[in-house]
Each structure stands twice: as C-alpha cells, then as structure tokens.
Amino acid sequence: MQLKQRYSAMSLYGFAIVILIILTAAQAQWKTADAVDWFDFGSELSLLLLSAGWYLIVTLARPKGKATQLLLTGLLAFSCGCLLDVLDELFITEPVGLWYALVEKGATPLGLMSLTWGLAIWRKEQQMVNHQLQTREQFLRDHQLIDMTTALNDARALERQLAERMGSQFSLLMFDLIDLQHLNDNQGWSEGDRRLTLVAQLLAEQVRSCDMVCRYAGDQFVVLMPYCQPKLATSWGEHLQQQLAQLGVATRFEQLNHQGRRHSPQILLQQLNQQLQQQKLSEQAA
Question: Which of 70, 160, 176, 239 is the most exposed place for a label (fewest CB within 10 A)?
C-alpha cells in the first residue's frame, strides 16, 4: 500500500477510536476503582491491542485492493467493538443510549464477516501466486536463478528459456518502472523493494499460466509469452500497464515478437532494451 494510503488508513483508525472514547466519556459515568473488574479490563484491552496490531500489519504489508479493504474494514469494526468492551469496564454505560449498544454488539460480528470475506479473497490471490510459482518452477528449478527480492526468475533464467525456445514463436514484453529511483532516493530502499514486490505479484497473478515473468534488471521486468500472436501480446501489455497504473505504479513498456528465427537470447533482449531506451529518450525530448 502506498504511503498516502497507509496514512489515510491509520488516520481513519485513530479518528474512529478517539471519537468513540470522546462520545462515551461525555455521556457515561466513571466507575469507582472497586467496581472495575480489572481482570476483564485486561482481557478486553489485550484484544483491542491485538486488533490494532493486526490493522497496522495489514496496512504495512498488503497492497491496495479489495481484499485489503475488506480486511481493514473488518479489523476497524472489530477494534471498535473491543474498545467499547474496554470502556464498558471503566464506565457505567446505561445512560449512553442505543447507539452504544448497537456498536458494542454489532461491530464485532460485522467485522468478523468482513474479515472472513477478505481472507477468502486473499486465499484466492495466494492460490494464483502459488500457481505461478509452480509454473515458473516447471521452467527452471535452479534456486540460484531466482531474484531474492521478488521471488521471480532473473535475467539468466530468462536467457536460458529463450535459448530453448528460439526455434518457436513467442513474444516478449519489457516493463520499465518510471519512478523507482525517485522512490528509493526519497523514501528509502525498503520502500523500493516493496514496490518491486507489488509489481512482481501483480504480473504473476495476471499473466497466463504458460507465461514466464522475470525481473530482468533493477527496475525492469520481462514477460515471456510463448505461442502468442503480436496483437494479443500488445493487448496483454496494455492491460498489464493499466493494472499497474491502478496501483499507482507508472511504467513504460515495449514489445518484441519472435517468429522462430535463430537469434541469440542476448541479441533479442538487447534489441528490446534499446526500444525501451529509445522510448525514454523520446519522452525526455518531448
């Protein structure tokens, strides 16, 4: 999730917690220390702190998407229910009104429903990622040819696959992340690695099961699409570029179509990279 979206999610969480505390304190009466069940208070407070920790973890670890939104919504609702349980141990809440009872009793089950829905979508996403990992493993099982940051095949693995497929038809799509260096300089390398992981996950989820996704260079990714017609490859490239843009990742991409002629993998990749550099120079000159 991008920094701005993380800030918005955490601000929403804090705002909801503060508002509930203020409303309750303004309408309810404090219990005396003797009337407080401190064991129950500690238990309810532990649940609240755990839910807050889960919310923070999801905010930091998950990319933007439907599953993430459902998880955050569920955790926020669950936290609100836990907070009112905590306040119920400290305040005499009968005078507060109907809204308190509705939130206290309704927020937790609604939150758990949202969490369950989000986890189901997350599981489906993970199944797709696992499928892509298994597909890549069929191409190449040598762990030394895996990029450690993204868990994708690296350039050497791509060259080996191209060498084996040089007599067949395939298309290559090369994507260049436009703002990765700027992100590294301003927000640090850890944020850049998160961006790379996000791109790798999306590409692995979106391509066909027979395709191979690799991290070709620091800010470049290549998709090998066997037996793919040029027009279809172009459509896939534009689709992937749009999907990345929706996640806030700006890219440029170039395409190379191979019709079974004998060339070395290095020549093909050099040609594709030159096309991308020409596009970059044209943008700078415009």
Answer: 239
